[in-house]
Structures are given as C-alpha cells and as structure tokens.
Amino acid sequence: MAVPIVMGTEIEYGITVQNDPDFDSISSTVLIVNAYREDEPLETLWDYDQESPLSDARGFQVEGERYTPDQEENIARNKTLINGARFYVDHAHPEYSSPEVTTARAATVHEKAGERVLELARREACAILPAGQKMLIYKNNSDRKGNSYGSHENYLMDRRTPFKQIIEHITPFFVSRQIYCGAGKVGSENGAPDCRYQISQRADFFEVEVSLDTMVKRPIVNTRDEPHAERDDYRRLHVIVGDSNLSEYTIYLRNGVTALVLQMIQDGALEKKLSLRDPVKAIQEVSHDITCKRTVSLTNGRKLTPIEIQKEYLEAAHAFTSGQPLDTETADILEKWEYVLKGLEEDPMSLSREVDWVIKKSMIESFMERKSLAWGAPQVGMLDLQYHDIRLEKGLYFLLERQGKVERILTDEEIQHAIHHPPEDTRAYFRGECLRRYPKEVFGVNWDSISFGLGDQPIKRIMMSEPLKGTKKHVEQLFANSPTAKDLIENLKI
Asked: Contact, 201 vs 147, CB < 8 A?
C-alpha cells in the first residue's frame, strides 16, 4: 500500500444577523471569530509565508497576487485552537478547518466539534450585539441569492500518483457519491432547470470539470497544489465538490469511502474505465433525480445510474481489501457503503435515519402533509434553512437527533472532548499542545510549522512537514522534559 490517507475538513458557514439594517457579513464574521475564547487569550499569527495557493497540480503557477494581511488584521481574522483546528474569516464567512486525522471517525468527531465551536462563538457574539439583534449561523451551502459557499475535504496522497490518474478515477466517483453525501435542497439555483427538491446543495454551482478556482467556474476536481506537508512526498487533494452535512452517518461514510477510493487510486487498484462523457452535466442530472435511477453517459458508450457507478467502486474495494486483514473501521465503512447503496436502489426513503438529503426530505414532507402545503410554499423553504441552524435547541436536525430519529456514530462526550483536545496520532497533537502549554510564546502557526518568540531572540520556526510525526507517542516525553518554550527549543536543538 502507498502512504496512509491523512484527512481533514474545512467548513464555511452561512451567517446573518436578524434585525440589523446595516448587516455586513465580513464584520459579523470578524466578530464571531473574535468572540470565541479559550482558556488563555491568544494573539497568534497565521503564517501566510507557508501558503502557496497559486500552485496548480498540473505543473504550473497561476498568475495572481497572494493576499497577506498586516499583523493586526491577521490576528483579528485568525484563531488557531488548542484542539489543532483553525477558526478564521474566509472572505465573508466564518470557516472552521479541522485538525489532521487518520480515520473517518476522527474526521467526523472533529467536524462535529467545529459545529459546537461555532455555536459557542455565536452565543458570545450575541451577548454583545445591540438589543433586539440576534446572530444566526447555518451549516449549509447557499444563501439563495446566487452565492454558494463550500464544504471542503482534504486528503493527503502519495505524490508519485499521477494527477491525471487521480482525475480519471475520482471524477465519476465524485459525480455519483452525492447520492449518499448530499445534504438536500428545495428547488434549484444558478440557472439550473427547475426542480422541487434535489439531492445536493452544491451541484447546481459546478461549471467545469478541472480547475484551480473555488469561487467562479467551480470545478468538480480542484487542482490546488498546496500539500502543507513535504512536497516531494505528499499531494493534498482539495475536494470542493461536497455538501455541508449534519448527519454523523453521512459525514463518516463520506470521508471513509472517499479515503478508501483514494487509497485504491494511489495503489493502482482501479482498472475499470468509468469516465463520464459530460461530468458537469451529469453532476447536475444526478442531483436532480431523487430516485437515483437516471442514467448518465460514459465515454465508452455505457449508460449507468449513479448507484451502478458506486457499485463498481464498491466491487473494486472488496477486491482491494480481500487479501489483507481488515481493520474495524474499514470493515464498517464497507458494510455501511453496501447497506446504503442497497437502500437507495430499493427505496431511497428507507434511509431516512442515515442519509442527510433523505432525512431532510422526510422531515419536510411530513410537515407539508400536516399543513397541506405544496413544495413552493415559503414555509417549506424556511424549513429547509432551519434544518441547518447550528443552535442545538433550535436547529431542526438537532431536534430530530434529540427525538432519536437519526442514526448516530458518535457520543456527545466524544464531541465535547474534541473541542478542547487535538487528535493524538498526527502533528495536530504537537500544534495543539504547544498552544496549550506555551500560549504566550507561540508567535505564528501554519499546518506545517509553528514559530516561537522568546524575548529578544530571533523567531524560532519548527517545521512539521511530516503529518504523522508530532503525535502524542512521539512528543510526550519531549513535553515532559520541556516545562517552558525555551526548554522545548533547546531540547529540539533549533
């Protein structure tokens, strides 16, 4: 097998302030980021020197200027948290980037922890708003005014895997996986054909197959070549094609299956050609067909449903894993993947406890039946939005969760723990623990580095280009021997 898949997610949240006639999304986002407080207030810079957003995986640099804020703006827009995550202002949205993890379950835990961080920050922000105003945060992907914002996944892969090979195999997978990854949406947008309800919130906004852009002419496969790790060894696949999910089951399956498929790609274990004739058209067609029975055309002349395409990947995954002992999570992912595809084939609505778009559709239809409403009723659109409200006491997804109407993967205790603790098996542990132990000495942070300011000495930067070093096992004794940041620097011999 090639390098292990290290993963994480970046979620942009929708934001609004009720009863604010001068609402400005940027200033409100700055407010919510700064409203979040941990034990020790930090004034840590995000290290933009380590960023390379204009590098394209196809082997060239895109023309453009990198944006680098001044120190005051940097501190105001960025927080690196003691759990290893980054909470920051991304254009006009609050964004939560989870720490690096090695399992789908851990990815689910830390994404759900991000929801709780946003809600804690929202409450603090509301406390300082003028009387009568209330900030609301939504984990969704559209403001219904033509603007879409992302739910991004990141997977570290072997740099030796040709990018052309990744595109060939991952494009049909991305187009078809929405049948169990979609968050569901009432209606259509961005000039797409009208529909009452569709599978994905994002599908209407993809316009090209492959590109570096994330905001205009959005691609199904993003080509950003910014590994945040040793460039000679790693490639980070930056996935922008997903929805913002609330169902733990969906998040777990989304990350687990995608990581398994990428493992097969980098090991050369996918042989069947499933390339689509028109991926951009197909991603929209799949989303608009809630029966999951509509076929899409392949370049070889075959016509397959998205379920059939996913079954091809599942069959390959069974073959790929058959000759080796399976860890518990991989076995569970394979079982859930097969279960979901079977349910979608027999009756998508049978998955009204597991799959986000089905959960939401079932809830909306139940409400419509009780109130004798049609799909075009404004109450239906409002219900769609309220499903994504991150307030635990108001959000409709969380209401269903309290009522025991959705399947859970996690416990509340696991999520609460992840708010304050980094994963222990990646470099995120070293990052988070440095912030916890030496908060006043940490000067700057990026995913692959951390810098210390020790009095009048030059800034000391520690490179962390290997994501599987800096784990608890790797640095526990180092921390025990380093009661101060100065001790840490001396013990590392920097």
From this structure: no
**pLDDT attached to residue 48:** 84
Token readout for 215 is: 């905001």
For 245, the 3-state DSSP assignment is coil
Report how many helices (DSSP H) and strands (DSSP E) the chain contains, helices first. Answer: 15, 20
Q: 0.90 exceeded by the pTM?
A: yes
Instruction: Compute the distance between CA of residue 462 and CA of residue 479 in angstroms, rounded to an integer.
Output: 15
pLDDT at 60: 52
Smallest Cα–Cα separation from 220: which of 229, 230, 210, 228?
A: 210
Identify whether 487 is a catalytic site residue. no
Asked if residues 284 and 175 have their Cβ atoms less than 8 Å apart, the reply is: no
Is the distance from CB of 72 to CB of 81 less than 8 angstroms? no
Q: Which residues in 65-150 belong to E strands, given as ranges?
A: 78-80, 86-90, 93-97, 134-138
Closest CA to 92 of 145, 35, 14: 14
306-321 vs 248-266: helix crossing angle, rounded to 10? 60
Q: Which two tokens stand for residue 80?
A: 């690196």
In sequence order, the β-bridge partners of residue 198 are 185
Q: How far is CA 119 from CA 16, 88, 98, 203, 294, in A?
A: 13, 14, 15, 27, 39
The sign of the torsion formed by the CA atoms of 270, 273, 274, 280 equals: positive
Chunked mean pLDDT (size 10), the chain, 494 residues: 81 97 95 90 81 63 65 90 97 96 98 98 97 97 89 96 96 98 96 96 95 80 93 95 98 98 95 95 98 97 97 97 92 98 98 98 98 96 97 98 98 98 98 96 96 93 96 97 97 86
C-beta neighbour count of 22 within 10 angstroms: 6
The beta strands (E) that lie in 91-205 are given as: 93-97, 134-138, 151-158, 185-186, 197-198
CATH architecture of 6-38+81-417: 2-Layer Sandwich (3.30)
**C-beta atoms surrounding 393 within 10 Å:** 9
Between the alpha carbon of residue 387 and those of residues 138, 184, 364, the distances in Å are 9, 10, 9
Residue 177 has φ and ψ, to the nearest 5°, of -70, -15
| Burial status of residue 208 (CB atoms within 10 A of its CB: 0-12, 13-18, 19 or more) | middle
**What's the pLDDT score for residue 221?**
96
CA distance 386 to 390: 9
In the chain, where are the structural domains located?
Answer: 6-38+81-417
Q: Which of 47, 90, 225, 448 is catalytic?
A: 90
First-to-last alpha carbon distance for the chain, in angstroms, is 34
Q: Residue 348 and residue 358: Cα distance in Å, rounded?
A: 7
pLDDT at 97: 98
Dist. CA 63–CA 238, nearest whole Å = 19
- E strands, 49-92, in order: 55-56, 60-61, 78-80, 86-90
Looking at residue 264, its pLDDT comes to: 96
